[in-house]
């Protein structure tokens, strides 16, 4: 009573200051506000005295309520029916506050407040949200200040919001009233429903989705969106949906062969999702309702992981399994799946990837190798990985054969080889791991190289692995791989040396790397002949390299426009010095031309930049030849301006004359 008399005797200005002070002290509890109103918080009931509220000045009550959040205000009015009658006009009278109260009711599943908002004039199917746009900082182009703050209303569906907030009681009330998704623009409604279904199809909300499906939500959403949004069967299975929920999806009309986009797996079919995450009973349920192991071909962009096909999902699960259980894969094969099927996929570019076209493919064998979780797992997991890989290889799993690996040509293979994929992911140091090397041995002995042995020989002799402290581990693993290659029947070490030298010459390396030099010396020690006619054309490595240097390649055709011009030239000169120091003979003839004449035969038609670096490389070739063959060479004249090569051997007269000047 004293507090009421104090308020009645206090001017309105002082009451406003008092309400501000109360707002600063107000946290979550409504006790200060209720004390200010003139009654205690404990005896809140229907029989409490309302005379104190009636004698409270209206402006005092408005000032107090204006500092409350819409949720706290609605919670205050719900404490007592008399207080609700007294304060509801302030909550529901302006349209903006009415809509805010409606949003609060949808958020907290308050059916009574929702009905009050509707009775006060709010539409039943649509709620309007007012957002304030911030003005642009500074001034605009005309020199005026930023545009004023504007209020842009956004219409949302109450049915969609009740599902998004998991307000099942309001959802049932709206369904009983016959509310649908009308009143919202179709484009905006599809966006809202798409976000709604993404939120519902998650591991923590599958129970709510099942309860909504039992209430008819899936059939209600079908007419306002596409099939992928209405029935995300694949995403629900990946999230861990039960068989009961899957049956509800199928009863609502979900397509068991429709592929859905998943954030982790890309485009994935329901059967593939079941193979990855569920048991055999889920697979049998989907197959019983018409799920196909061979889905129809769709033209879509290459995915990160092509798990849309059930066979690819089966091999991924097989790679991550810790037991030797191939029942799922055998089930796929028994239904007509091809173990060497190709699917579009964009492979990640590793550190040493060559330039490749954007359209790439994958096979079940590559998916298995890519899905191996770790090389340092448990003993059971390692044994299961080897047994499952051996099963795939025995059943004929391969990758598509690559084009002929001609030295000096850039192979634009759309599918990487097995070893390229493994080494790019785990690096050369992983070859020192016995488990990793056992996997590599199975692939090499099974002939899964796909003609890519030359690409492997040239790709991994560069980069940071050539510097300490990586060199020792990288060279140990690299030598182990080279020895494995040489142990295979029909492998010529001279051909490997040819690939290593010629193809490394097309790279934009700053210098001859340590790993390349060590690999050349190791192959020479294992019986390789650097002057052998091992190229497909029948020429030696040095002659083949000079042939390659005549023509620009895709990775060096713009070298004269880049700052790497001099490093490339220095690398090629160092490579020639390396070959000549290891016994390469520049006087060996092929089709009537030796290495120097092969290098400069197209000099007349070359562009000026190419002509300049060919002269530099050719000068290095002749200088090195004059030093290396100081004993057996009787005469060596080198002149660049006009170019003159005259080399005569004592053991047999072999001379090359080329004298012509190019400006």
From TrEMBL:
Q: Where are the transmembrane segments?
A: none
Mark the ANK repeats by their residue spans: 228-261
Its ancestry begins with: Eukaryota, Fungi, Dikarya, Ascomycota, Pezizomycotina
Task: Name the source's superkingdom.
Answer: Eukaryota
Q: Which UniProt keywords apply?
A: ANK repeat, Repeat
Q: Name one GO biological process term.
A: positive regulation of protein catabolic process
Cited InterPro entries: Ankyrin-SOCS_box_domain, Ankyrin_rpt, Ankyrin_rpt-contain_sf, F-box-like_dom_sf
- The name of this protein is Ankyrin repeat-containing domain
The family line of this record is: Belongs to the ankyrin SOCS box (ASB) family.
